Amino acid sequence: xxxxxxxxxxxxxxxxxxxxxxxxxxxxxxxxxxxxxxxxxxxxxxxxxxxxxxxxxxxxxxxxxxxxxxxxxxxxxxxxxxxxxxxxxxxxxxxxxxxxxxxxxxxxxxxxxxxxxxxxxxxxxxxxxxxxxxxxxxxxxxxxxxxxxxxxxxxxxxxxxxxxxxxxxxxxxxxxxxxxxxxxxxxxxxxxxxxxxxxxxxxxxxxxxxxxxxxxxxxxxxxxxxxxxxxxxxxxxxxxxxxxxxxxxxxxxxxxxxxx
Length: 260
Fold this sequence. Notes:
Elements: E1 4-13, E2 17-27, E3 32-36, H1 43-51, E4 58-63, E5 66-67, E6 75-78, H2 90-95, H3 104-108, H4 114-126, H5 142-155, E7 160-164, H6 172-189, E8 192-196, H7 200-206, E9 209-214, E10 217-222, H8 229-237, H9 239-251
Helix pairs in contact: 4-5, 5-6, 8-9
């Protein structure tokens, strides 16, 4: 039974702007999937459809064989901008992931069951920040803040974790750290994950499977071994990318002459 299933999903804005065009795929439980594609390809719309924030114009979205809709507590989200409360500690920020399970009075008084507090500490430990649990979020680095955002999503206890360009604002080392912790958390919890990334080298390092989206269409679905540079060019540049790759190959200097 797939954890995620999209069947002939399309999303049209304003009657003529096609964000997703007849997209179908299934994701088994625990798979770490990376969305690739140029800006405006439809990656963010795809994540919003999976999160239930955007209703498809046509087609069906299922999570654990149930239609997307209503409360989305089973879907955790890691945002490009971490959206932490900077005056609160990492621990308190992580705890907010339990709000969907708390009643109004508990939420208003920031009262949480001991089980949720233990879950927040475990999640911070998972992302390597247990020792910084008492540190104010505003004093943390960008990479640490993003890891707190991951911890907050884990406290939600989701079946599906979504991440929208989670490392786009980070330097290469911090970006790899964040992705490593996210991948380890997903593996530890057998958590199905879909992350959109624009850094192809980082995507290749951490993804199990890759979905290429261009002009709202699914143009590639494959493994790391399938994701050649020619395929990457076609995802990002379309047919022009294929011609570009062929031109580069034919105009490259013959390195064999260097030995003479």
